[in-house]
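We were asked to recover a plausible sequence for a given structure. The inputs and outputs are reproduced exactly as logged, with field labels preserved.

PROBLEM: sequence recovery
POSITIONS: 500
GIVEN STRUCTURE:
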């Protein structure tokens, strides 16, 4: 009868303490970090078990074991919950739930014969202190960055966005190694369709584990085949709070120092929070400069290869003479010469990023100068091409998003190949393919090139050029936020007139 009742209720308890210990040891393959202690009092057996590397041992000794062993009352589930001075106590009766919480830093107390076990969250959180962002440097504005601690990241966002409408929706990711994630949005602003779409993608994710927010982003993006990122990954809390205030959705994952922002547009990857903190004139200039830099980075070297290989008539006479003199001793065709130097630049960049900071900077500067000079003297390449390659590399580093900057650098290689094979026609073909590809892309179902396509005049002052704040009273309407107005100009002018 007891077995039938246990099967009907799907409960693992009651169970003998010794058998419970054996079950846990079998589940964790006799792992050395499983601590299982048995205490006896007046014929009662009490078991306290946890994973020792996951919990705070001082809190267990002072607040749990001391209270239980000093208690004069009979041990029961209710007496334990009432006497232990912790407010995280909860009752459980299923083995799967017990194992999941055991891994997540819970301490369990079981009295033999009881139908439930009591658990307390005593996770010992290891975290680094707040520091500057490594991949998104800012000169003006907040310097603090996200950390690997989910609790710390939530506290930072709550501190920056003190709104009762701010929602932190909990979602567990990963079947074999579960991790906690939070879906973050402003309930009164974010579009419900976007929220539901992101929630559905996260809940439908069938994967063993999610290593990082950037890995999660690849799982839930609209297209996994494109080189362009469709969601924005940021380490800056001010960037995340700014996007969420505009009606976008954020996702943060446990053990990841990055937040995912969606939906985004192609132009979002060239915006920086510094644009907001500067005067609108300077901010607009820098934003336009980034777009020009992107075009230079993709087009400068391919144009050189196409002109030198097929279209001499496009080069001014004096410059053509200089190019001819610099290439007089170069035995390779321009396409091979350009690909070789581009590869060299990428090798120096990757080596500088992987080495310690001081050594990496030395390798980047000294290596570039020494290798470039030696290549010219050896007749492997021309000095004019080195100038073009350097300008292209510098232009690619102006993108605030590391992911977009990497995409731009990769795009140079197929463009150079097309230019070396087909000349200007190859470049036109490559640009046409890119435009068509970008037109087909979406981010959380929203057009990737909005507000250019589909065209929305009202949103142009938020992507290409940043106008003064009094002309940006509405949010980004292409994403259809619930609350479209972020700044009421009429009321602001009325208040200003009254003050005057």
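RECOVERED SEQUENCE:
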């Amino acid at each position: 009868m007891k077995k039938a009742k246990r099967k009907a209720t799907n409960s693992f308890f009651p169970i003998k303490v010794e058998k419970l210990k054996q079950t846990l040891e079998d589940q964790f393959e006799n792992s050395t970090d499983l601590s299982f202690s048995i205490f006896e009092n007046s014929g009662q057996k009490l078991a306290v078990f946890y994973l020792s590397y996951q919990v705070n041992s001082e809190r267990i000794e002072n607040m749990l074991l001391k209270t239980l062993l000093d208690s004069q009352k009979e041990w029961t589930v209710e007496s334990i919950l009432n006497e232990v001075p912790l407010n995280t106590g909860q009752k459980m009766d299923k083995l799967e739930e017990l194992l999941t919480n055991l891994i997540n830093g819970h301490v369990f107390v079981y009295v033999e014969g009881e139908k439930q076990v009591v658990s307390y969250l005593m996770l010992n959180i290891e975290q680094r202190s707040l520091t500057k962002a490594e991949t998104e440097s800012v000169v003006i504005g907040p310097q603090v960055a996200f950390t690997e601690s989910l609790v710390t990241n939530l506290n930072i966002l709550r501190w920056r966005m003190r709104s009762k409408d701010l929602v932190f929706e909990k979602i567990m990711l990963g079947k074999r190694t579960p991790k906690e994630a939070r879906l973050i949005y402003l309930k009164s602003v974010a579009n419900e369709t976007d929220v539901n779409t992101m929630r559905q993608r996260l809940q439908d994710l069938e994967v063993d584990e999610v290593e990082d927010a950037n890995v999660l982003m690849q799982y839930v993006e609209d297209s996994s085949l494109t080189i362009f990122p469709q969601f924005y990954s940021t380490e800056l809390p001010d960037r995340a709070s700014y996007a969420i205030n505009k009606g976008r959705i954020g996702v943060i994952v446990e053990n990841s120092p990055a937040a995912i922002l969606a939906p985004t547009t192609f132009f979002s990857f060239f915006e920086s929070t510094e644009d907001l903190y500067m005067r609108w004139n300077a901010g607009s200039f820098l934003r336009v400069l980034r777009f020009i830099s992107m075009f230079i980075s993709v087009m400068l070297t391919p144009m050189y290869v196409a002109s030198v290989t097929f279209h001499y008539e496009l080069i001014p006479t004096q410059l053509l003479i200089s190019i001819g003199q610099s290439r007089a001793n170069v035995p390779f065709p321009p396409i091979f010469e350009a690909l070789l130097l581009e590869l060299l630049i990428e090798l120096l960049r990757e080596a500088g990023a992987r080495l310690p900071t001081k050594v990496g900077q030395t390798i980047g500067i000294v290596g570039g100068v020494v290798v470039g000079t030696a290549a010219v003297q050896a007749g492997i390449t021309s000095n004019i091409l080195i100038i073009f390659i350097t300008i292209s590399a510098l232009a690619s580093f102006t993108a605030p998003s590391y992911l977009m900057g990497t995409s731009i650098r990769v795009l140079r290689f197929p463009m150079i190949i097309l230019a070396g094979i087909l000349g200007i026609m190859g470049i036109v073909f490559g640009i046409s393919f890119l435009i068509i590809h970008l037109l087909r892309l979406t981010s959380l179902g929203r057009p990737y090139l909005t507000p250019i396509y589909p065209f929305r005049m009202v949103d142009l002052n938020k992507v290409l050029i940043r106008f003064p704040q009094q002309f940006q009273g509405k949010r980004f309407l292409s994403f259809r936020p619930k609350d479209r107005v972020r700044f009421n100009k009429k009321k602001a002018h009325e208040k200003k007139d009254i003050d005057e």
